[in-house]
Amino acid sequence: MLHYFLIFLIYAGFLGVVFDLKNGYRADKNTVDWPPAVLFGGLYFILLTVLYEKFLVYILLNMVNSHGTFLVFSTIGSGMYMVLFSFGTLALSKFTMCKKPDLWTYIVFAIGLFINVTLMFRVATLNYTEMVKKFGDAVFEDFYITLSETARTDTANRLLNLKWIVMCIPSVFYIIQISKDLKED
User: Fold this and answer.
1) Longest dimension (CA), the chain
2) What is the pTM of this model?
3) In this structure, is the dihedral angle defined by the CA atoms of residues 161, 164, 169 and 174, taken in order, positive or negative?
4) For residue 97, is it left (φ>0), alpha (ψ between -120 and 50) or beta?
5) 13 CB contacts (<8 Å, ≥6 apart)?
6) Model confidence pLDDT, tens digit, residues 16-50
């Protein structure tokens, strides 16, 4: 649930910061066409929160049949989510005619992606251990039941929350870069 709030906060914050720094709707100071940017942000938020989650669950339920595939799909799914989330921030910057990210933003993104994937690998390992404790060798007989009936440990929950926070850092860093650039203009 934390990630839904964080994604909404980042996209709404991005649009709010840029809107404020570009003096809102004043035509003499602003050439941004705001309705498409806001519409894209809303649709992309829905894409990331509803459709991607359903797609990832579909993959986990239909393509995972071993410990290795569970770890790989969980980790790749998390990394891809971060890439798509950051792409949404870049697309919003295009809609609002902001400057491209600088090298430091890409470096922060690469470090964040590495940390995100590492944390998710650890979470998937912890989750798999719990599944084996509960279901033994029958983990993959009905993976939906295995996933839904296995509770995550407190450590796994803390790592997941940390992963979502790390995922947002590159976008926040980019928003700070944009706000500095817009204040200089």
Assistant:
1) 68
2) 0.84
3) negative
4) left
5) 175
6) 887 777 765 444 455 666 777 788 888 888 887 77
